[in-house]
Fold this protein.
Amino acid sequence: MHDDARLVQMRINRFVTERLQPAIIRESVPAHVERWEAPGEPVPFEHAIAQQFEPVRAGVAWGRPWGTTWFKVTGMVPAGWADAAGARVELVIDLGFNSAIPGFQAEGMVFSEAGSIIKAVEPLNTSVPLAVAPGETFTVYVEAASNPDLSQAWTFAPTAMGDPETAGDQPMYRLTRIDIALRDTVVWELGQDFWTLHGLYAQLPATLPRRAEILRALDRAVDAVDPHDVAGTAQAGREVLAPALAAPAWHSSHRVHAVGHAHIDSAWLWPLRETVRKVARTFSNVDALIEQHPDFVFAASSAQQYAWLKEHYPELFERIRRRVAEGSFVPVGGMWVESDSNLPGGEALARQFVAGKRFFIEEFGVEPLEVWLPDSFGYSGALPQIARAAGSRWFLTQKISWNETNVMPHHTFHWEGIDGTRIFTHFPPVDTYSSELSGADLARAQRQYSEKGVANTSLVPFGWGDGGGGPTEEMIAAARRTASLEGSPKVLLSSPRGFFEAAEAEYPHPPVWSGELYLEFHRGTYTSQARTKRGNRRSEHLLREAELWAATAAVRGVAEYPYETLEQAWHTVLLLQFHDILPGSSIAWVHREAERRYDEVRVSLEQVIDRSVRALAGEGSRMLALNSGPFAQRGVIALAAAEAAPVAGTATVSSVDGGFVFRNDRLEATLDADGLLVSLRDLATGREAIPAGEGAKVLQLFRDTPRQWDAWDIDADYVRTMTELRAAESIEIVAAGPDQASVRITRRFGSSSIEETVTLDARARALEVEFAIDWHERQKLLKLAFPLDVQAAQAASEIQFGHILRPTHANTSWDAARFETVAHRWVHIGEPGYGVAVANDSTYGHDIRRSGEGRSTTVRLSLLRAPLYPDPESDQGEHRLRVAVAPGVGIPEAIEEGYRLNLPLRSVVGVGAEALEPLLRVRGDGVVVEAVKLAEDQSGDVIVRLYEAHGGRAVADLSAGFEVADVWETDLLERSLSPSGDVLGRSADGSWRLELRPFQLVTLRFRR
């Protein structure tokens, strides 16, 4: 037989394009269309329909960037369609879609005349069923969002469209059609048959008989369909293909649990307010699909998105509530948003689960058991413990498949966190969270699945994502055809829980991956949009302070606990930790709004703190120093307030040989004539921390032009273009002691300037540097380098509720790929008996590598970037940040320095009390209190969250400064961990003793 496969494929392709697809719409007539353009931000349905509409026709230009246009659509279904068998009446709405990617351009939401949402229209989903009989009239309204397509085919070119102030007002779209149409359901089904079989054909090996069988079946189906009467002969074509579609899957075929999904970024290339509408559009699409396909299950994460729906679209929210009750709409993830997991602090990451699960439990009576983070940029080694402490059992992501260098060896495994906690984890081998259930997607899932031979099941999330849209009729049709199809994986419409229970049963002893899941990509997200990151860090610590002092005031009976205010602040901070906001990868609009919201949080929490403390201390003329941190400062014990002790000792700075020498009882530090740190000695040992002949505290400027994904990526080759900013424009002493000694240094480069203030306090063990930076560079990366005379094999970096150890060498491809890493408040490098800590107040990106022929180690902090996409003005302007370097210290001291820099003593003037006793005292090395608050259920119980911070076993004695009935250990949701409700035993002195494992996280509930 001659090989004419290529020619047959050409014939099939032309038949589908020119005959089959056009025949799906049997007939159509234009509807009558009028429009009204909202002058500003979106308006409610009731407001829009009361406006004066003007008639328009297809082809009219509409929609300024980020605008909203309402179309009023009226018409009559032709009476002649009454006898149209095998067809359904619908509206076909094409707003002028300019690509085949939903979610990144114009979108529409269709309302009934009564104001109920029917469904959305988007590219690849343009039909709206009309429940109107032939001869009857109808009226619907379309809220059309003219969002600019900022994906720009992923060219990463700078664009002014990400800010409404620079986007202009010229119309962006042309209305293509709004027609009343008669869809031929048989032709449509034939189209799905062709799509499924042809997609499978393309994935099968050329030598497989099944491949040739499919091709010949498709060829014969083309013969069976009359090109001049497709509607009349489509069923004949289906009958030809029926045997090919009925051939059952091989027994050994890979098993796919297909879960309906729509990954909706809570903000990214669109603002937060647009996500509210994206959620409504997507969820209404899903509701319409469930109505047609009751066995279809859809999973959606992010309590915040449901909360938006409840606030803005209550009628649709109630429909979704009913779908949840029947099991067809499944809340997943249990978090407030799909947050970044590297940058949020420990308590904030815990609150993602507390807030998210509380919402789902209270609103729907369900608790998601899976952590659902398909698109976050790497995963902290603390996450397994946090997830399990929140009651979760499973974890899902697919982002690690984006690794540039190394391929993860597993798709199903146990992920072990820094404390030894494990969570059952799955990476969908389909490598997308927006599958179409195409032949290519299913073949990829089967081909890449790593557990072959010991397990055979994976999950495929299907539905348009990122900008939303969700599953379509075509995807469900594909699932039905591949339920058991020879040559294809077996596809089961399923739920996340259904998959995980099946996968656990199939694979009870999977391999273990220990430590962080580092994404070898998007390393620039530790640094981009520094103001957003600083807002997050400051807000997290303000929330700690506000809860502590509000709880203290409430327990002392002098003030009500501001539950609502604190919850609102938390919800804002948790929302802004979304994985395209906090990492700095959104448009300008998003980050300007984040800065505004962080300022609102600051004002609100400062008021809570002030009211609480004044209620506790009364009015007077005293000054109180509040210590919200877990370690004593200036004689003020942890979690308490008192008059700060006088500064003991002195700090001096003097000019010596063209440079400056700082000294106190602990440290001696020398700056050269340009203000570089050339000597740093802790006086207890006399050891020098700076390598001979080198300067530390060096600002280094690098070209920052990644291959792709500007705001996201730092490429390894950036190191080849370094310029050191050594020269100082001016340097002067600004404080000579005795309490504090300071030197100010000014540097200028390019279009920018930096003012450094180097300070040594009288009793400090760290030299502190404050930077005031006026930054106007483009595509540059600014780092701060500390070469240190420490031969460190590994570096410790603070993460949530502990720290992680990473090698400082590049022995393996895994080590080499980890060239930029995340740390929270501190990093530490050490050798036996000696170490150096570097702390910060708002920086996350670091790189720590061997230097000086391997005998020293350089710690560098990434201070600022200036990517051009998606925000061409990223990071431009003024920034303030602080860094402290402490020589001769271990990890315990590094932890203290991190807290000291981020939670300094707060002074309150005009109060009457001399001191405020803490609600809780903790005695035990290594045990750190992270939160003190009142219980979420508003019972008045006190909640204390603490953890072992040193990485070793610890014993702690706790005593309360208030009357306590009993104490439970709870999960993060404040539910007792003991089935019998047993309480912690009390010692003879009235305290409670805890024994903690390395990095163990503990939540205690004190019943008053």
Q: What stands out?
A: The chain has a mean pLDDT of 97. The two ends are 87 Å apart (CA to CA). The longest strand covers residues 877-887.
